[in-house]
From TrEMBL, chain A:
Superkingdom field: Bacteria
Transmembrane intervals: none
Protein name as catalogued: Carrier domain-containing protein
Pfam families referenced in this protein's UniProt entry, alphabetically: PP-binding
Organism taxonomic ancestry: Bacteria, Pseudomonadati, Pseudomonadota, Gammaproteobacteria, Alteromonadales
Length: 86, 456
């Protein structure tokens, strides 16, 4: 499963757990704040992805701009995993 | 000591509150306040609870009942359920008074008054009766106790406004309203706006992008929010459109990466993080854009309090004003209050680490672990439960639970029941995001759960 699929599946899991209604479909330019997850949902998503992928890129000082869209969110994880493997 | 009306008169303050429908000046709100004070003249020297509806209406209540009632409970509709039934609840909602056109003439103020009070026609005559009152009102604010039941702490207007300042620059500020003023942080913003003669934009949208657009349209240039709220605003990618001059953070531990991100996005804004204790009614402000506070303050003190760190690494505070008698057990013989905040000295900084009581701070919401544990332990088949915070980069902490179940029972069934019970009895942020089945829990020699062991 690639990172994008992992993130999407985790979003669905978290939406169910946190009683959020995810919008469909989630596209690259979908704004995170309008995806249906609220701040608690996002906190849970970041926690779940940390368990699955072993990283929380938002604790890193290197992230200076928060992602606004789904594609940017996935890119932050892709970059984090790339840095981890180096 | 002046009451709130007198204090605003002293500062010549002319604050504005931009509501969802209408903009009110403080002078207009004073007219409403006088009318309410007359309606509730029987509450002179009696306690009352003011229920929050919106900022402008709350100001009317504060102006009307400070210096009039003996005790004034600043409350929400939910919090008021825990108050003694003998205390009169007062709900003011100016937004309902659509018929009100000109409050300073002979028009009628038709704001909604609590159901148990008969609606009355009120003359809008401007008086200064309220300035003449000699009642020193005790203001009560709620904080969550260890069982989740709110605890009410007494304050005075003097202690609540000790950090409020007025100047020409401060009067030009236009604040967003992200808190509700029945909480300590929200009340601080509202009092600052009133005393400095600034403007407060009280939009009622739940959608952050709409809120930000509203702030841009109304020239908001000052925001006070929790670190979690600031992270969410940064996620919007629209925060740079708000021309911020004042950035205030409080209610949670403030970390350095967040301060750096805000400074980079708003290089000319002044950034302050506030440490406040609702119980103690004190706060101090750190403006050097570094996490924690200077260690030298432990010797020098801050403007309204002396600070110390005890042998358990708890921050202790000795304010200049008298503390609520309920806090006696936490005050040492030198008058220092145990804030229950654990700190660590790192070089020349004092850094906050968390709460000694185990209370979990989820994005500014305090979750007492005992409350969640009692819900989990009510599920048949659960023999032990321990709830604690797991550090999280979005909301500071999330709630997780370690659970021991009775032998030979199915974890899948029990965990499902726990989840549904939690949904029934807890607020969303209180529900554990993770349930971990474990074999046993470590107890202290006194048979209590060990809350200090490391889960990470």
């Amino acid at each position: 499963m690639n990172i994008e699929q992992t993130v999407k599946r985790a979003m669905h899991d978290v939406a169910e757990l946190s009683d959020c209604q995810l919008i469909e479909p989630i596209k690259s330019d979908t704004l995170l704040l309008q995806s249906g997850l609220d701040s608690l949902g996002y906190a849970m998503l970041v926690a779940q992805l940390e368990e699955e992928l072993g990283i929380d890129p938002f604790t890193e000082l290197a992230i200076t701009v928060y992602p606004a869209t789904f594609a940017e969110f996935v890119a932050v994880y892709a970059k984090g995993l790339e840095q981890q493997s180096q | 000591m002046n009451n709130l009306v007198g204090l605003l008169g002293e500062h010549g303050a002319n604050a504005n509150i931009v509501g969802a429908v209408e903009t009110y000046t403080v002078h207009q709100l004073m007219v409403y306040a006088n009318a309410y004070r007359q309606t509730y003249s029987h509450l002179s020297k009696q306690p009352a609870a003011l229920i929050y509806t919106n900022a402008a209406s709350f100001v009317v209540g504060m102006l009307a009942f400070d210096g009039h009632c003996s005790r004034l409970y600043l409350s929400s509709a939910v919090l008021a359920k825990d108050l003694d039934a003998s205390i009169t609840r007062i709900t003011i909602d100016l937004a309902d008074a659509s018929a009100t056109k000109s409050p300073n003439t002979e028009s009628v103020v038709q704001s909604s008054i609590d159901e148990d009070q008969k609606q009355e026609r009120l003359s809008g005559r401007v008086t200064t009766d309220s300035q003449c009152s000699n009642v020193v009102t005790q203001w009560y604010l709620a904080t969550s106790g260890t069982t989740g039941k709110p605890k009410w702490f007494a304050h005075t207007l003097a202690s609540l406004t000790r950090n409020s300042k007025a100047s020409l620059t401060l009067g030009d500020l236009c604040w967003a309203n992200l808190y509700q003023a029945y909480r300590y942080a929200g009340l601080q913003v509202l009092l600052q706006v009133l005393i400095s003669g600034a403007t407060l934009v009280d939009d009622d949208s739940d959608d952050l992008l709409l809120k930000i657009q509203c702030w841009v349209n109304t020239n908001v240039n000052a925001i006070s929010a929790t670190p979690s709220m600031w992270r969410q605003m940064l996620m919007s990618n629209h925060l740079h459109n708000v021309p911020l001059q004042r950035i205030t953070l409080g209610g949670e531990i403030v970390d350095q990466p967040l301060l750096d991100k805000l400074a980079k996005l708003h290089p000319t804004a002044s950034i302050a993080h506030i440490y406040a204790s609702t119980e103690a009614g004190v706060g101090f402000v750190v403006k050097d854009q570094l996490a924690g506070f200077p260690a030298s303050w432990l010797q020098q003190g801050v403007s309204n309090a002396q600070l110390a760190v005890d042998e358990k690494q708890h921050l202790r505070i000795k304010p200049k004003h008298e503390l609520d008698a309920q806090l006696d057990t936490l005050i040492d013989d030198k008058g220092y209050l145990d804030t229950q905040d654990i700190v660590r000295l790192e070089g020349d900084r004092v850094i906050f680490l968390g709460r000694a009581s185990g209370v979990i701070n989820v994005g500014g919401n305090k979750v007492p672990p005992e409350k969640v544990e009692s819900v989990i332990l009510s599920v048949e088949g659960v023999s032990q439960a321990k709830v604690y915070g797991q550090p999280n980069s979005v909301l500071g902490n999330l709630v997780v639970a370690d659970i021991v179940i009775e032998p030979n029972l199915e974890w899948v069934n029990i965990s499902q029941t726990i989840r549904s019970q939690c949904k029934l009895f807890l607020q969303r942020f209180e529900i554990p995001v993770k349930l971990r089945k474990i074999d046993s829990l470590v107890m202290s020699p006194t048979g209590k759960l060990n809350r200090s062991d490391d889960h990470v």
